[in-house]
Give the backbone structure.
Amino acid sequence: MKGKTPIEDIPLKLGKPKTTAAGIPAIISSAKQSLKKMGLSNTIKTLRMVNQKDGFDCPGCAWPDPEHRSPFEFCENGAKAVANEAMKANVDAKFFTKYSLEELIGKSDYWLNNQGRIKQPMYLASGATHYTPISWEKSLELISNKLNSLPNPNRAVFYTSGRTSNEAAFLYQAFVRLLGTNNLPDCSNMCHESSGKALVQTIGIGKGTVTLDDFNHADTILVIGQNPGTNHPRMLTALRDAKLKGAKIIHINPLPETGLVRFKHPQDYMKLDLSSTGLADMHLQVKIGGDAALLRAINKLTIDSESIDKKFISRKTKSYNEFAKSLQQIDWERIENDSGIPKSEIKKFSDIIVKSKSIISCWAMGLTQHKNGVHVIQEVVNLHLLGGHIGRIGAGLCPVRGHSNVQGNRTVGIWEAPSDSFIEKMELGLENSMPRKHGYDVVNAITAMENSEVDFLFCLGGNFISATPDTTRTANAVSQLEMVVNVSTKLNRSHLVNGKESLILPCLGRTEADIQAGIEQFVTVENSMGIVHKSQGKLKPTSNMLRSEPWIIANLADMTLHDSNIDWLGCIEHYDKIRDLISKSVSGFEDYNSRVRQPNGFYLPNPPKDSCEFDTNDGFAHFSVNPLPDVSINNDEFVMMTIRSHDQYNTTIYGLDDRYRGIKGNRRILMMNPRDMLELDLKTKDLVDITSHFRGVKRLSSKWLVIPYNIPKRNLAAYFPEANELVPLESTSEISNTPTSKWIICTISESNSIAEEE
């Protein structure tokens, strides 16, 4: 039970999936969430500040802000994120007196989130049944003593979520490295790590190569393995605007998603505009894992059409001949079987591609969380290299980040495998030596915990237990540790899976004013397109016991690193001092304090985008030759992917409905093709058990309500974090080591069956 989401008997209501995203329902949902949790005055105050130049960055996704912003620059799910952070309810010492750890373990993720903001530091002693209050001084002393007592700094792991500011992330990685380890896993390891690895190998930078304005000039936009209507709703505005300018939009995904069908911008009602815009010109309902076959076919047809950009290929790329040769023979029967797309539809898609002068390709977890995640993204790169769709207005690669500053965290040093050049620059800036040995990523950190090679886990934000794969194993591994520390704003399941000692340290949120030494501070973030800009909250903090993330890190570092030459406490007197250190230590941040005060912030250097140059070993972009993955399964098996509902942001559950998909009241849902249900003699809302299979080991998850849904045959979909217990820890992407949450081989049985060792 520990670590798992409890099974609840909640009625399920089913309706038809929606055909239009946003519109009036989005306005109503935003208003209900905001008014209920924040009240009228805070609702008006916060929503007028979110994503504004003098306000705070939305704590939701990392989609960039337009240069010219509307008074209400947020989406439905952004409003939910703000409301959940700025809510009036709170969790204090009385709460933890009332509820034992055992009682809290039995509560749902939705219930935990709704209890409110954590008001004060809390401590769970060894063998204790309840968290109890603790002072900041005592809590930091306990942590510092534990760190200094470790026989080796590599026995500590320091996790980071994507909401952490650049300033906090920089101090954090500096502290950890000066402690003596590179054990800095983060949420990137579980999402866009595959993107970073694929792009560095091919174009020399682990980021996208487009700006928001490029969407206004593209003639074709591919949206692959992504559901922007739920996960990046403001992206729909960019797609709508591109569509109105004549762009074609191709959606490649196992599920039809409402956000790509039709979109109604809520602010259009203020202009008395009642119309909506159809978005996707084509929806290619690819089988789970079939993207590689589809893209291989498109690249073959592009070469055959002789519409490639020969000048770009000869001047800017290498390995074209090898790539073209690998496509000379193509097995169309396998392409159709693997992708699930008929050859006729693939040719229609190809006709659009070969006529396009400026293509943007967007993708998310639907590509990255596969065994071939790196390779399939390289196939996307191949498509762009064939047509010269990089370094051109209206064209480029666009991995869409989920967390609001996950890209910024990586840029300023949150990385378990830093390059020598990065460390050398950091050493010069901080005037300290740092370890070169690579540390643990998320998967390897969990394995090290299992093997008793780690004693201490510090989580700067996030929900480690719910975000990671193989829930039971992860929870058991964390439970073996001597100390677990979570820096958090809200209660989550990670607070309920404890080492011998556990601490919860409550921090300020994005919406709240951060005052240090009597001065209002601001922090900075980097969005999905490489723009660094300010974020400054204005609300009165929920509690006078909250501390900022930079304050927590600086005070812990000052207490722990006795021989450090960094003035840690001086850094937090004014965050300009932190940014001065970043200027010296991280390339691209020169004159940081001045540039970030510009109205829209500044772009970090991006050679492929800026000048069509590639920072690879030889200065060329590289075609990749990769084998097609084996996507065959046994006759009794299915392939399952984990997905989000519309009422959730990553592991945070805002509600129990998935409005766009017509699912209400229950999250323990298994979506299945109706023909598969007939073959298994299953009826709507029947209870089934799901067993995942990997290398002879079975993992059982009980009592799922099966429903018919428009999904390819032999494919399944279920919500995370509930389904994370079925993701094998060892099943990861080649090269990136990202968990394969979009490729889980399963069998289905009547509920309450018992899994056995194969």
